[in-house]
């Protein structure tokens, strides 16, 4: 894959994550964040194209969605948490042999990391574990919904993608 093709691919993946994050937003008053399905596209990006693509798409796409949606106070944290989420998903998938079970484990570990990461972020931002704990159910709901959308979408798309892990 040429440098130009890689740049275009990353741009498309960033856009998918950003749009997926912004398309369905349910505001969470307690943490001043929102529930979304952008993690579904982080899962797809990471499993189809590897940990680096997942990290770039997850971190930049999600942070961009925060900036465009009026949640700039989360953008830097999102860049880190969602970027690491994407990397974890792709890395576990590669290390466990790119099997169906490896994809499921990687996806679940990634979204669990996201929930834990945002718990730490909320604890820091609001100086309160109690406030952060109130957001856990929302983040866990987002994680489960994104897994239930993202993994089946990956399974469907993986049958036709020719450039898997060539980036």
Automatic annotation (TrEMBL):
Membrane-traversing stretches: 7-28, 40-65, 71-94, 101-126, 132-157
InterPro entries recorded: ECF_substrate-spec-like (IPR009825)
UniProt xrefs under Gene3D superfamilies: 1.10.1760.20
Keyword set, alphabetical order: Membrane, Transmembrane, Transmembrane helix
Top-level division of the source organism's lineage: Bacteria
The protein's name: Membrane protein
Species, as recorded: Acetoanaerobium pronyense
